[in-house]
Predict the 3D structure of the following.
Amino acid sequence: MVSRSYMNFLDLASGNLLEIPHTPRSIPRVMTVPGIISDLDGYGPHGSNDGDSEIASSICHERKIIVTNMLPLHAKKDPGTAKWCFSWDEDSLYLQLKDGFSPETEFIYVGSLKADIDASEQEEVSQKLLEDFNCVPTFLPQDLQKKFYLGFCKQQLWPLFHYMLPMCPDHGDRFDRTLWQAYVSANKMFADKIMEIISPEEDYVWVHDYHLMLLPTFLRKGYNRVKLGFFLHSPFPSSEIYRTLPVRDEILRGLLNCDLIGFHTFDYARHFLSCCSRMLGLDYESKRGHIGLDYFGRTVYIKILPVGIHICRLESVMNLPSTSAKVKEIQEQFSGRKVILGIDDMDIFKGISLKLLAMEQLLQQHPDLQGKVVLVQIVNPARGSGKDVQEAKRETYLTAKRINDVYGSPEYEPVILIDRPVPRYEKTAYYALAECCIVNAVRDGMNLVPYKYIVCRQGTPYMDKAMGITSDSPRTSMLVVSEFVGCSPSLSGAIRVNPWDIEAVADALNLAITMRESEKQLRHEKHYRYVSTHDVAYWARSFMQDLERACQDHYNKRCWGIGFGLGFRVVSLSPSFRRLCIEHIVSAYKRTNRRAIFLDYDGTVVPQTSIVKSPSSEVISVLKALCNDQNNSVFIVSGRGKNSLSGWLDPCERLGIAAEHGYFMRWNKTCEWETHSVADDLDWKSIVEPIMRLYTEATDGSSIEVKESALVWHHQDADPDFGSCQAKELLDHLENVLANEPVVVKRGQHIVEVKPQGISKGSVAEKVLSNMVDQGKPPDFVLCIGDDKSDEDMFESILNTVSAPTLPLAPEIFACTVGRKSSKAKYYLDDTVDVVKLLQGLATASCPKPKYIEQTLVSFESII
């Protein structure tokens, strides 16, 4: 088993990483269970920090640990005392989400500060923030912070997640391994901070955004059963874009170490699921409305819910005297003109220049609007730096100047750029007065500007007074929203546009400002109902409820960690499911003398991925040894054809073979092949084969396997998404046309199979065991090993048959699946190598070597 120590994790992750000192444990741990801390969480000299202690406390309560890149705090140094002063950032989403929970719920925040704190002051600041704000700061060295945030996050992840590829040096930065190492190092330091204060059995950890996508791997390694959720606030790109990232698998596996992953829209979730399917081979399914991925026995759930806004906070700003004064000032400034409002960060993805071009097109197509409509564009400071930001800013100013020169006058500026820090009250005033709000981003994760606009247009009694309207006046609002923005799907009354289609955006703006008041009112009411009921509190509460549900089975399963570095993951299986120990089965083997052994072929004695499908000399040797023991009845039970199996296994004269899932059966090499009783009824093949051929022609990479008893459509080499879609359609098609035929249509891993009813591997096991009973040799030992769904029939059949009253005594049963996965079998082995080694152990027990011959003992670790 892999060590749980995480001290050398960086070295395992990517080799020579930055020399970052391990975070000192300077912040006191919070005790929720009486006693000595080291006794409880393994931080004592003899403890292990796996977090899986069974200690429970009747007085403990659940806490929420919110992990973000930046803490929701303002930091300022007092020039007089030279001391740091801190205050809450009331506008931060991460602070506002607390409103979704009861006042008794404790929140701890982990993240960096927006200020550079000297190393000599970090200890004092840490204590102050923990005591006064329940915040745990992560102090990254300045060089690391620059490479982590401005480097990997902003220059590589952010553009990629917004569909921008570095096709040439002038168009984005190429992948830089040193920046990636900084990202790994920073995520490791964040995880260290969480480990200082977490109580893994009680606390829920909620990690936010693309800065910390590796953190779940480090945290899951420290605590296998940590309750961990992640929410991505940016878009997740399609697989065609994401697959270009050299560290794509590491990031996907990092996210999959969570219990719940949240996205704003189904599109983002769909892209993530597609990446997991195409790059990691993982399938997902929807169960009772919840999407789940099976990842080594753990179910990773997917949450789709756009974030909301804090309405009360916005209403309180509307009621400020400064807001009222600004409203009156703006009303006077734009008297007789309609205001179109845009509020965006200055970056290349917000589409500001495209918005200005649409405004230019509007004025050109509708000269009557000149002098009557104004676009007010508030530009928030850029969050990143680089030549792309400077280029976007230059283009914006040039376009605005050109429009004002052509269509403006001394008394009229059609485009007003406000490129300075704008206080919230001033933005609120513009929201309240704007006839239309436009969000024209070419790609954006969520964008809450439309939500804020809708609430401000709804107003408050204080705002109504400032605007000179009565409280019963009808409320209106008009939104023009890019279809590439995360909030677009939730705003069904907005005019959705393609921001690249300048004429269509201009037409949308014209429609928005000329629409009938009654229709504006209906659209506004619809939007306000949604925004007011899906606020930030609803979003946070809903996410945490799903996280609690996702974690409820944590202690009902056995967990252990496997893998090194960023490939670490946790295997989670049923408590009764254990590794088949060779010493245990050999002991039972020696005690018995009427043994039945059933072995699958592909994926069990021959690797599934092997190009050469014939058995190795080692497999032939061990099968011959088992068959030569007169106390054994050994059968290969496979879906393959009889000719292939009989040719490959020809040296094993006493080996029984069941081909095509039991349609053909031979007790040994000297016996004739027996055919199942349904052999004469295969007329359905003439119906199935043309249909499968049709789907094969339409699905590149698919093929048909023709067996004597069955027809199989394979799509393993087809596009994963299209192949899966076609397989589902083929399944429905065949079930409809074969409804009255004596056949079974089944969908397996990358296949759709049609075969006669009553044929299964389970029926083979039943027949062999019944034959042994009829011969007066009821089995006292049954071993069955297989790796796929068809073998589950054997496991079930064996358990049912041996419990039948015809058997005088219950035999020793060893039903074993290959691979750690959900199964009806009680045991598992990791791979075909383990299977062959186990069979060699049984063969040795059948043919013990003379004592004088030197023997080599092989030890197999058992995980019980």
In short: The first strand starts at residue 63 and ends at 70.
